[in-house]
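Q: I have 203 residues here and want to know how they pack in 3D. Can you give me a structure?
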Amino acid sequence: MSIEFLLTSLVIVVTPGTGALYTVSAGLARGARASTVAAFGCTLGIVPHLVAAVTGLAALLNASAVAFQTLKYAGVGYLLYLAWATLRDRSALTVAEQDSAPRPALKVITTGVLINILNPKLTIFFFAFLPQFVPAGTPGAWLRMTELSGVFMLLTFVVFAAYGRFAAAFRDRVAARPAVTTGLRRIFGAAYAVLAGVLALEA
């Protein structure tokens, strides 16, 4: 495995996107455990893109404008839903809330999975990025692509979990200031909406 692959993957993963934003939001709202679960969900959401790239479905998606646009606008719609849900949330942000009525892990994971499944940029990334590190004619190329994808997923989980736990470390300070909590929700809601707009305007 080349150092170029590791460095490029790390740069891509560290660059904040919807998955990182969701993990940070989970860390601030529900603590370190929830942020780790959210990071796991976002990582699972990469699997369909991995499978598409390895099996060649990414080529079909890339060639079909209708398929790509459908996936893109589904992602836009989901990001707008997240923006709306975040802005309308009026629940208190307290440690007691985390202990007595935590959000079901399955729901946190499902949201994380959907965020990355509905991200067409991931499919394009795998289709355009992985082949550069698997020379044509390589025996067992699909196995090599799967191995590299696994490394990318591991980096994603570690970086996202670190983002979430860093956010969770400031949770108590945020919870003690209702105005800060409201401001953060507005920031996250606006960020989801902006990301939706950027995705919608991309060719």
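Q: Anything worth noting?
A: The longest helix spans residues 141-169. Residues 17-201 form one domain.
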